[in-house]
Amino acid sequence: MKSALSPIQQALYTRLTSILSCSVYDAVPQGATFPYVTLGADTGVDWSTKTWAGQEVTITLHTWSRLPGMSQTKDLLDAIVQNVTGNDLVMPEFTPALLRLDYIETVMDPDGVTRHGIVRFRMKISED
Fold this sequence. Notes:
Blueprint: H1 5-19, E1 23-25, E2 36-46, E3 54-65, H2 71-84, E4 94-108, E5 115-127
Parallel strand pairs: 1-2
Antiparallel strand pairs: 2-3, 3-5, 4-5
């Protein structure tokens, strides 16, 4: 069995950079311009059977905005959800069997200025 975490992250990065008008980061560079999206924590658990290998994976994405109000944060979250759910991600050596929204949340960052959006997806994938 191979880990699907890196292929999923790459597929999400490719999808998001093609549809969003802001930067997408795995590691945010110093002085990054708002808004931006970060690829967050992920988990994977075995979902194999006797005849094929598979994993259930969660991946969390974060949006960051400094505009007043939550409008930009919610717009970014909406664009992410619309373009990730219902669309197969292209991943070498893996095939998505199920991809769904797990949860979505908006919060004010402790700095009192930054708006933070959080969205987590859950997917079941099989190894090709």
